[in-house]
Design brief:
With 576 residues, the chain is of the alpha+beta class. It contains 17 helices and 17 strands. Strands 1, 2, 3, 4, 5, 10, 11, 12, 13, 14 and 15 form an eleven-stranded mixed sheet that branches. A four-stranded antiparallel sheet has the order 6-9-7-8. This is L,D-transpeptidase family protein. Pfam families: PG_binding_1 (PF01471), Scaffold (PF20142), YkuD (PF03734).
C-alpha cells in the first residue's frame, strides 16, 4: 500500500492566497460587468429617450419648414427648403451630427472654403461654432444644431459643385452643364454624411482640374502677400524707360519685388532704371497682358497700381468661373479664352495644340458658350453677319455700288439665287430690313482665310483662318466682329480631321490650293468651350492676369458678395 505524503503547510497557504486572488479578480470582473450592464441599460434608457426627443424635435421643425417654407433654427436660416425635409424624412428624422468628430470635420471644411475663394459666412460659420458645443442636452437645441450643420454641408457642396453665382443670371443663353448626373440629391447627401472621411468627401465636389488646383495655390500665395503688407502703388508720372534716373524707380523696384517679378539685385544707384529692372518690368508686363516693351507707361502703371486685394478678388472670380464649367472639361475639348486671347486643344485630357487668337471688339463681344464642332469648310465663302451688314457694308454700298465688285461680293436671296445689285434700292435699307444676303467669294481677300471651323450656335460665331496675320503679334487682340481668328488653323484642322492616311498637312494644303469650297467632316469631335477668364496659371507656374476686356469681372465679384441663396433660374434647385 502506497504511503500518502502529507502536504506542506507553506504550499497550502500560498495556494489559498492565489485562489483568493483569483476569486477577487473574478468578483471584480463580475462587478465591472454588472456596472457596464447597468450603465448601458441606463444609457439606453435615457439616451434612447433623448434620441426620440431629438427625432421628434427634428420632425416638428421639418414639418414646419415644409409647411411654411421658412425656418430659423438657432437664429440661423434654412435655404434648402426642399432637400432638407426630403432628406430627414428619408432617415425617419434621425439626427446626423451627434458625433463631435463629425462636427469638427465639417467646421474645418467650412473654414477651408476660403481656400476656394468662397466665404465661410455663407455657411453660417459663426452659428456653427456656437452650436458645436457637445454639452447641450436640450432636444430642441440639438435639433437646431443638426439642421444648421446639414444646411451648411448642403450649401458648401452646392457651391463647390456649381459655384455660388448662377451664370444664367449674368449671361443670357449660358449652356454649360449643371447637374449632379444620375444621382438624386437625397441619395447624394445621404452618401456624403455617411462618408468615412467627411473632409475628403466634400473636396470631391470641387473641380478636379489642374487649372483649379493651381489657381487655389495662387490664391494662397497672394493672401500671404496681403498678410505681409502687399505692395506700394507706383505714382503716376512720365513714362519710365531703361537708363532713366527717377525717385519713382525706388517704388517700382519695391513693387516688383513684392510680387516676385524683381529677381536681380538692385544696382548701387537704386534710382537708376537698369537692365535688371527692365527684365523685371518685361516679366510683369507679360503676366498682365501688356506689350512687353520694358517701358513703364500709362497702362503699365495702371496695372502696377492694382493692389493685392484686387488681384485676390480677380483670382476668386476666376475660381468661380472654373466651377461653372468644370463638368464640361474632360477628354477631348477645345478651350478658347477670350480674355487671354488664346486657344488650346486637349485630346484625352492632354494639351495637343495651342494658338494665339483674335476675338471680338468690346462693342462686338465674343460670347461665352459651349458648342459641338461638326465640320470644316475649305476655301469658305463669307456670308456677312447681320451686324456687319447693317453697320458696315450697306452704308458703303448705298454710297457706291462698286464696293461689291471691288470686294468680290454678290447679292443672293435666302434660297441662294443671285440678284443684280442694280435692281436693289440700297438707300431704302440703311436702317435695316435688308431682305437678301451678301456673300464674299473665297480667295485671298476673304476675311475667313482658307479654312473655317463650324460649330452651330445661336450667335453665328465660329473659328477661322485670317489673312491679317500681323494682328497676332499684338498683346491685346480684340479686333474681330465676334468670331475667333486662329493663328495656327492648319495644325488644328489636321488634328481634328484625325486621319493621317488621308489628311496630312500637305494633303490639306493641296486640297485648299484647288480653290474649291468644300465641307469636310472632322474625325475627332471636340466640344468647343468659349470662356472668359481673366486669371490663370501659366505653364511656368506663374499667375497671369488678363485685362478685363469686356468689364465682366465686377458683376461676378458683386454676385459673390451677395447673401447666400439657391438659384431658381430656369431649374428646380435644393431651395425650391
Amino acid at each position: 500500500m502506497r504511503e500518502t505524503k502529507r502536504p506542506d503547510k507553506g504550499a497550502i497557504v500560498n495556494r489559498a492566497a492565489r485562489i483568493g486572488q483569483l476569486i477577487g479578480r473574478v468578483l471584480q470582473l463580475v462587478a465591472l460587468a454588472l456596472c457596464v450592464a447597468v450603465g448601458s441599460a441606463s444609457a439606453g434608457l435615457f439616451g434612447e429617450a433623448g434620441g426620440d426627443a431629438v427625432r421628434l424635435a427634428l420632425r416638428e421643425r421639418v414639418v414646419a419648414l415644409r409647411t411654411n417654407g421658412d425656418l430659423r433654427p438657432g437664429g440661423g436660416e434654412i435655404a434648402a427648403r426642399r432637400l432638407i425635409p426630403d432628406f430627414y424624412a428619408s432617415r425617419d428624422y434621425a439626427p446626423v451630427w451627434s458625433s463631435p468628430e463629425r462636427r469638427r470635420a465639417l467646421l474645418r471644411a467650412v473654414d477651408d472654403s476660403a481656400s476656394h475663394g468662397l466665404d465661410p459666412a455663407d455657411y453660417q460659420f459663426d452659428l456653427l461654432r456656437r452650436h458645436a458645443d457637445d454639452g447641450m442636452r436640450d432636444a430642441g437645441r440639438l435639433a437646431d444644431r443638426d439642421l444648421l450643420f446639414t444646411e451648411a454641408l448642403v450649401r458648401l457642396v452646392y457651391h463647390l459643385r456649381f459655384g455660388k453665382v448662377d451664370p444664367h443670371e449674368l449671361y443670357e443663353g449660358w449652356n454649360f452643364s449643371r447637374s449632379l448626373g444620375a444621382v438624386e440629391p437625397v441619395q447624394a447627401l445621404d452618401a456624403l454624411v455617411g462618408a468615412e472621411a467627411l473632409g475628403a468627401a466634400i473636396e470631391q465636389f470641387a473641380p478636379r482640374l489642374e487649372d483649379y488646383r493651381q489657381l487655389r495655390v495662387a490664391l494662397l500665395a497672394y493672401r500671404a502677400m496681403e498678410v505681409l503688407g502687399g505692395w506700394p502703388s507706383v505714382p503716376v508720372g512720365p513714362t519710365l524707360r531703361p537708363g532713366d534716373r527717377d525717385t519713382r524707380v525706388l517704388t517700382l523696384r519695391e513693387r516688383l519685388r513684392a510680387s516676385g517679378d524683381q529677381l536681380s539685385p538692385p544696382p548701387s544707384d537704386r534710382e537708376l532704371f537698369d537692365d535688371g529692372l527692365r527684365e523685371a518690368v518685361v516679366a510683369f508686363q507679360a503676366r498682365h497682358g501688356l506689350e512687353p516693351d520694358g517701358a513703364v507707361g500709362r497702362k503699365t502703371v495702371a496695372a502696377l497700381q492694382v493692389d493685392v486685394g484686387g488681384r485676390i478678388d480677380q483670382i476668386r472670380v476666376n475660381l468661380e468661373r472654373l466651377r461653372w464649367i468644370a463638368q464640361d472639361v474632360a477628354g477631348d475639348y477645345l478651350l478658347v479664352n477670350i480674355a487671354g486671347f488664346n486657344a488650346r486643344l486637349y485630346l484625352d485630357g492632354k494639351l495637343a495644340w495651342q494658338s494665339r487668337v483674335v476675338v471680338g471688339r468690346p462693342y462686338r463681344k465674343t460670347p461665352a458658350f459651349r458648342a459641338e464642332m461638326q465640320y470644316l469648310v475649305l476655301n469658305p465663302e463669307w456670308v456677312l453677319p447681320p451686324t456687319i451688314l447693317k453697320e458696315d457694308v450697306l452704308p458703303k454700298v448705298a454710297r457706291d455700288q462698286a464696293y461689291l465688285a471691288e470686294h468680290d461680293m454678290r447679292v443672293v436671296t435666302n434660297a441662294g439665287r443671285e440678284i443684280d445689285p442694280g435692281e436693289v434700292d440700297w438707300s431704302g435699307y440703311r436702317r435695316g430690313g435688308f431682305p437678301y444676303q451678301i456673300v464674299q467669294a473665297a480667295g485671298p481677300e476673304n476675311p475667313l482665310g482658307r479654312v473655317k471651323f463650324m460649330l452651330p450656335n445661336p450667335y453665328s460665331v465660329y473659328l477661322h483662318d485670317t489673312p491679317a496675320k500681323t494682328l497676332f503679334q499684338r498683346s491685346e487682340r480684340a479686333y474681330s466682329s465676334g468670331c475667333i481668328r486662329l493663328e495656327r488653323p492648319m495644325e488644328l484642322a489636321v488634328l481634328l480631321l484625325d486621319d493621317p492616311g488621308q489628311w496630312s498637312t500637305e494633303a490639306l494644303e493641296a486640297e485648299i490650293a484647288k480653290g474649291e469650297t468644300r465641307n469636310v467632316q472632322i474625325g475627332r469631335r471636340a466640344p468647343v468651350l468659349i470662356l472668359y477668364h481673366t486669371a490663370e496659371v501659366g505653364e511656368d507656374g506663374r499667375t497671369y492676369f488678363h485685362p478685363d476686356l469686356y468689364a465682366q469681372d465686377g458683376a461676378v465679384l458683386e454676385a459673390l458678395a451677395r447673401p447666400f441663396r439657391f438659384s431658381t433660374v430656369g431649374r428646380t434647385g435644393p431651395g425650391r
